[in-house]
Amino acid sequence: MELALGGPATGFWRIFPWLLGLLALGMRLLGHAGSGLWFDEIWTLLDFGRLPLAELLTTFGSDNNHPLYSLASALSLRAFGENALALRLPAILFGAASVPLMWTLARHLTERREALLATSLLLLSYHHVWFSQNARGYTMLLFFTLGASHFFLALYRRRLPSDVTGGATRDLVGYAVCMALGTYAHSSAVFVAVAHGLIALPGLASGSEPPAVRLRPLWALAAAGAGSLLLHAGILRGMLAFYSPSEGGKMTSVPSEWTSPFFLVKATAESLGFGLVPGLVVLFGAVLVLGVGVLSYARQDLRTAAVFVLPGLIGAAVMLGLGRNLWPRFFFNLAGFMLLIVVRGVFVLATWLAARFEGELRARLERALPALGAAVLLAGSLAILPRAYLLPKQDFEGALGYVRANAHADEVVMAGGLTVMPYRDYYRAGLPEVSTPTELDAQLAGKRAGYFLHTLPTYLDSRHPELAATLRERAEEVARFRGSVGDGDLIVLRILPRAVARKGAER
């Protein structure tokens, strides 16, 4: 497959990235960017967004702290007041900026039509819009992963030693800044840096490039490491305490469905919006296309293929080894790479299929099949995009309003699991907290009935299994408030006191 890689932009293409950025910004400001917050966003606001800046720069707290995002959101809240849009504004801005950056990376790695399609898919991606309206550091991580990878590969394109004082110096500094800020945005950026180090090491023994060329990536990595340590200086002690088992760290996860690799596959399939079984079929097809795309990039340039694939493999291996939750969002920063690989795979398969024919039909198919593949990809993306605008992430307000409107004076409303902190500390709803069957019965004593609010049932099953079993046995779901977070619906259960339930069963 012959590729005409992008050169210097001219004419319309010089302003094209700016147009992309403006369009992306508008799309990410639309919808429910100002709607109610979900659990992780509330946690971010309470634990970090409201801290004094001096304290914020020296507090780690937990791995829910994405330090660069915590700092940016705290500044945004001070500038625009405490509201959902202000809290999410850094995510929106970095999400919008990552689209033209994707174009910049892609046009140096593949031909214009592939770069244009992959960038368009990112622009129209439900997941990208969702994360751009999510007050967490993931769009920052995506932005800096794309930027660092662009500069890393650019260092190898500048092959003359004299380039060290020219464009390569800019690339080296650009890499160091992006990689250092990436690790400050989210610690999983370390997997990207490790992958780049593993890619750079074999080049040291190569005699095909001058020493100055071979050493550039290592100098860039060293500068990025120094910058990262400087940025983390204030919170480094807290991070070590959190992650170190010898110091009683809190990193260990409670075994649950979330720590299983099968959960990652299931959650990814369901996030496509077609249901589990159709989603698994689509995911299986995507894996096949990804394999073809990776092979094509490896034939074009093995280093580029490694930049695309290695960070995800390293990250997955580390998370599995540590028994940590495997959320699909941990791989969101690789979305740009995945789209480039998928687009390449589709075009390679289309070209291969057309080659099975002869003559005029072959010529027509060589034109039509890639266009058809592009149309299918765009149509699939557009089909699920509206979900990013139609549902809140989690509807804590809706569930609370429902029980307040329906609960009688002799009925108690309780919170459990991951609804406790939001209703207690953010909404200040004054709901009793329940974590055991004994506490549940104590709250129901002398009451006609009770309402129990919870969300993300896997958490309740893993942290409070006895309570979860009691609720399955005795409670009835009376309302469900949909949210776009996977399994994040707000569930309203109605439960009778044990004595009343027993009398009803005897009748």
Fold topology:
Elements: H1 12-29, H2 39-49, H3 53-56, H4 67-80, H5 84-109, H6 112-123, H7 126-132, H8 138-157, H9 167-185, H10 189-204, H11 211-231, H12 236-243, H13 261-270, H14 276-300, H15 302-322, H16 335-354, H17 359-384, H18 387-390, H19 396-406, E1 411-415, H20 420-426, H21 437-444, E2 449-454, H22 457-463, H23 465-474, E3 475-481, E4 490-495, H24 498-506
Parallel strand pairs: 1-2
Antiparallel strand pairs: 2-4, 3-4
How much helical structure, as a percent, in the residues?
A: 55-70%
Task: Give the mean pLDDT.
Answer: 87
How much of the polypeptide forms β-strand, as a percent range?
under 5%
Output the helix-strand order: HHHHHHHHHHHHHHHHHHHEHHEHHEEH
Q: Can you give me a brief rundown of this structure?
A:
This protein has 507 residues and is mostly helical. The protein has 24 helices and four strands.
Give me some keywords for this one.
single chain, 507 residues, mainly alpha, four-stranded mixed β-sheet, 24 helices, 66% helix, globular
Can you describe what's shown?
A hairpin with an 8-residue loop joins β3 and β4. The chain has helices at residues 12-29, 39-49, 53-56, 67-80, 84-109, 112-123, 126-132, 138-157, 167-185, 189-204, 211-231, 236-243, 261-270, 276-300, 302-322, 335-354, 359-384, 387-390, 396-406, 420-426, 437-444, 457-463, 465-474, 498-506, and strands at residues 411-415, 449-454, 475-481, 490-495. The chain has 2 domains: 12-390, no CATH class; 396-506, no CATH class. The protein is mainly α and 507 residues long. Strands 1-2-4-3 form a 4-stranded mixed β-sheet, sandwiched between helices. Mean pLDDT is 87; it is low at 160-165.
